[in-house]
Design brief:
The complex is a heterodimer of chains A (255) and B (292).
Chain A (H helix, E strand, L loop, with lengths): L2 H20 L4 H6 L1 H10 L7 E4 L5 H10 L5 H4 L30 H14 L6 E6 L6 H12 L5 E7 L8 H4 L5 H7 L3 E6 L3 H8 L7 E6 L22 H10 L2
Chain B lengths: L1 H14 L3 E5 L8 H6 L4 E3 L4 H13 L3 E7 L8 H9 L5 E6 L17 H5 L6 E3 L4 H13 L4 E5 L20 E4 L5 E5 L4 H9 L4 E5 L2 E3 L7 H4 L4 E9 L4 H7 L12 E7 L10 H7 L4
Parallel strand pairs in B: 1-2, 1-3, 3-4, 4-6, 5-6, 8-9, 8-11, 11-12
Antiparallel strand pairs in B: 5-10, 7-9
Helix pairs in contact in B: 1-6, 3-4
The chains are: A alpha/beta (255), B alpha/beta (292).
Chain lengths: 255, 292
């Protein structure tokens, strides 16, 4: 078993456990990005050299669980998720060690990441900036404002990852606002675009290491709720919290 | 005032390599000297204010003090959530500059009337409002922000270019700057570019003193009571609507203060909301809608 697979397994189990204990929602959104985060954290985010912003802040449970596995926060703190007076609010928070920027309202992460990437260019730093957006988040106009800036200023130290699980808040993306042809959209905005299976660690490693002269956009094709069959590709598990029987059933499925 | 702003920014940028200016595709005839001198520290974000604030926040996260420059409501209301979540919440060194305070752009209509900005900005707990009323106040408030980079809002008049002979030695948020101090028990307190209006008002209120508060914030509200309670009559003046404005802020400093037996008559001059939808010169609108 690879280190990436092993980390992803631990994190998926941890997400289910903490989500059950806190009766949290956004389980599907968190399970969707586990493999992307596992590769990013092991390969690029162990030190503080590179930056990462989880623009889809509602998927923060996956990030918190990774941070626990990577030693940034303790199990004890992780178990306070969503509880009274915790730093682990249910959207990504900069009060949590290892998290650079708070999100929760969509469309904020990319412009801020562009600012960090620009700062790195001004400072002649080789550090990279990764930002993870959801597909529904692309409805926000601020992203498209920012893509114009990123390509105009050739921010090729910026990697934008789209968690393309095809489901947004209350419906499928295709039933809400059509975003296809997505690859062409980003290309027409002046980005280099790569498609990848967002659950295949080997392929993720390869696309993340791609050298580009333009801002790099990675369309990670993912499955919402990945790893738990009854959650996969359903709108419901954006919101629903876990009962005991569902929790027991779900944990058994994580392999 | 705009030109002086750029001159002061250039002076500071010469000493401090962390100063960056981002404009929202505005500032023609004003910002060029900065752009020419520091091309690597000047960016035009385009007509894209949400992106502009995000960029500034990212740069500030990496240690830069970023000035974002636009006019009227574009650098505030258009990107209000970015100021709230990105700049203020993260306590970042970004100064939001808006040119055209009050009814500076009187003829351009409601879209360009900057008469609700205080109410928005003063709801952010970490943000300081700097509303200088003349050139000296502009210089000293900018120097304060250079020395104390933090979430801040700099409200500039479009064309006001008032020099005053008064030497202002220092400034802190909430500090009063006296322009008339004859130990009267009545006082006019103003902020921002209503200097000319205050001078006229003073003519009919000879037994009033006059002070401005060029910098103020949620955190400096508490410090006002001590000063206010020396007076019997307070008259606040601002080129902003009453709701959420400077007079409201000052008034709130009197609320919920323990064991104070106050006998203060508090009145305000502000822009009446009937000004909304009307156009005309700044002077005309100010006179007709509340600042006589």
């Amino acid at each position: 078993m690879t280190i990436y697979k092993s980390l992803s397994l631990k994190v998926r189990k941890s997400i289910l456990k903490i989500a059950y204990l806190s009766q949290a929602s956004h389980i599907g959104s968190s399970l969707s990005i586990v493999d992307i985060l596992s590769v990013l954290y092991i390969k690029y985010l162990k030190s503080k050299k590179n930056s990462f912003i989880l623009s889809k802040g509602h998927g923060c449970l996956a990030q918190y669980c990774i941070l626990k596995e990577m030693g940034f926060i303790s199990e004890k703190i992780l178990k306070t998720f969503g509880k009274n007076n915790t730093i682990l609010m249910s959207h990504a928070s900069h009060k949590v060690p290892g998290i650079e920027f708070s999100t929760g309202s969509l469309g904020h992460g990319l412009p801020v990441s562009a600012g960090i990437a620009l700062a790195n260019k001004i400072n002649k730093s080789k550090s990279r900036v990764f930002v993870l957006l959801s597909d529904g988040e692309l409805n926000e106009g601020s992203n498209w404002e920012s893509f114009l800036f990123c390509s105009h200023h050739n921010l090729n130290n910026l990697t934008v990852i789209i968690d393309y699980n095809k489901i947004q808040s209350i419906d499928f993306v295709k039933n809400t606002l059509k975003i296809e042809p997505l690859k062409m959209k980003f290309e027409s905005f002046g980005c280099r675009v790569l498609n990848v299976d967002g659950h295949n660690h080997k392929k993720l490693l390869k696309v993340f290491s791609t050298q580009s002269l333009k801002p790099l956009v990675i369309i990670a094709n993912t499955t919402k709720g990945k790893g738990v069959k009854f959650m996969e590709n359903t709108v419901m598990w954006h919101y629903k919290s876990l009962g005991l029987s569902d929790y027991k059933k779900a944990v058994k499925e994580i392999k | 005032m705009r030109k002086l702003f750029i001159e002061e920014l250039i002076k500071q940028a010469e000493k401090n390599k962390k100063i960056i200016l981002i404009v929202g595709d505005l500032g023609y005839g004003v910002i060029e000297p900065f752009k020419k001198k520091f091309p690597e520290r000047f960016y035009n974000a385009g007509v894209a204010e949400q992106s502009m604030v995000g960029l500034a926040s990212g740069l500030a996260l990496k240690g830069f003090h970023v000035f974002i420059y636009s006019i009227a409501n574009f650098s505030t209301f258009r990107c209000a959530e970015q100021i709230r979540n990105d700049i203020d919440y993260h306590k970042l060194a970004v100064t939001v500059v808006s040119v055209g305070s009050g009814l500076s752009y009187g003829n351009l209509g409601y879209s360009h009337h900057c008469i609700q900005d205080y109410s928005l900005l003063r709801s952010f707990p970490n943000t300081i409002i700097a509303a200088p009323s003349n050139n000296q106040e502009l210089i000293i408030t900018m120097n304060y922000l250079f020395k104390n980079p933090q979430p801040s809002y700099l409200r500039l008049d479009k064309s006001l270019d008032l020099n005053c002979e008064k030497k202002i030695s220092s400034i802190t948020p909430g500090k009063w700057i006296f322009y008339k101090n004859n130990k009267n028990k009545n006082i006019i307190i103003s902020t921002g570019s209503v200097m000319k209006n205050c001078k006229k008002i003073l003519k009919s209120k000879r037994n009033y003193d006059w002070a401005t508060i060029p910098m103020w914030s949620m955190k400096s509200k508490k410090s006002q009571l001590k000063k206010i309670k020396k007076y019997n009559n307070i008259l606040s003046v601002e080129n902003h609507l009453q709701d959420g404005g400077f007079g409201s802020w000052l008034n709130e400093s009197l609320i919920q203060q323990k064991s104070v037996n106050l006998n203060i008559f508090f009145r305000s001059k502000f822009l009446n909301s009937k000004v909304i939808g009307k156009v005309g010169s700044e002077d005309y609108l100010n006179k007709k809608y509340g600042l006589k």
